[in-house]
Amino acid sequence: MFLVEHQTQVLRKEVLNNYLTNYCVCDIKMPRKDAPSLTAIAPSQKWKIPKRGTDGEWYPIVRVGRHIPFGYEQDSDDKDILQPIPEQLEMLEQAKRYLAEYSLRMVARWLTEQSGRYISHVGLNKRVSIEYKRQRTARAHRDYERRFKEASEKARKLEEDRLGGKGTRNLDTDS
User: Could you tell me if residue 45 is inside a domain?
Assistant: First the structure.
């Protein structure tokens, strides 16, 4: 039994090494300890990707955690400001589109190879999930605002019908 399990593990390692050497064109040799991680950001301190400007430029963001997110670098003058790296952010947007067809691991590997900066499949998933959650929240808030305006308008009309509207009745002359 042990021999079969050992042979299976050796075969798996050979298949994985063959895949990595033949299908991955990654020249990046980065130790795991040097790879950035987004897991240390507290839930109350999640940073938000700013919207692009009218000319397509990206805006700097304030640093809220100890890790620098993918697509940003620390400002040389102020350690609390993160400057955008437009090329990496454009690749990240393209990677989000690739997620419809490919797995997280493949897209994260592609993004790492293309950008020269490591991002794990877990980090990519977290980044995409947070952005999607924020989009859903913003959509819900816009929907609530629209519903509130409609309900407020209906309540105003009901009140006008019940009371006669503004300026239609004079309380001094009516008895």
Answer: no
d(CA 96, CA 124): 9
- Check residue 25 and give its pLDDT: 44
27-82 pLDDT, tens per residue? 444 454 454 444 444 555 544 555 566 677 888 888 888 888 898 999 999 889 99
Asked, for residue 171, whether it belongs to a domain, the answer is no
Q: Which amino acid is at 152?
A: S
Give Cβ neighbours of residue 161 (< 8 Å, ≥ 6 apart): none
* pLDDT score, position 131: 86
* Domain hosting residue 122, numbered range: 53-163
Residue 120 DSSP label? -
Judging by beta carbons within 10 Å of its beta carbon (0-12, 13-18, 19+), is residue 142 exposed, middle or buried?
exposed
Cβ atoms of 81 and 63 closer than 8 Å: yes
Computed from CA positions of residues 142, 143, 148, 151, in that sequence, does the dihedral angle turn out positive or negative? positive
C-alpha angle with apex 123: 122 to 127, nearest 5 degrees?
A: 120
Instruction: Please state the rounded mean pLDDT for residues 124-139.
Output: 90
Domain total for the chain? 1
